[in-house]
Amino acid sequence: ATRWVVAGEPRVFDSDEDFAAVINALEDYSGPRPQTVDEFRCLKPGQQKFLRQRLESWHPQYKYCFPHSEVTPLKDLDHIDWSSVVGVERSAVGTDGILFVEFPGKTAVCVKCPVQAAAEKFGAMLCGRLGISAPAVRV
Fold first, then answer.
1. Rg from Cα positions in the chain
2. What are the tens digits of pLDDT across the range 61-75?
3. SS3 state at 89
């Protein structure tokens, strides 16, 4: 079996499917994408060398999934330790680009950058005056 270096670590592929999965996961790579080791061997030597170098230096993107049902709101918005962020996920819905930010202890904040920031703040203040539960807002 051929030893490959993938993301700086030696690796032997157990099957052509494993090999193809790594090749297809390469980001920012526009060269040929052989789906088997035999197809790789049919590439020109320069293409083989370039693809091997790309595999060696490649670092797969980390996929973070915000645990919506497991977190509680961070109480103090005035003293957030941003260096302790566990992960960030952008909301898949909406138009203002909400970011869900998780901190240690399963606490979280939502970062929103609305076009109408004053209206958001007013709405939160109005809810507070009316006794309606609403997220804390900081502008």
1. 23
2. 777 889 999 999 988
3. strand
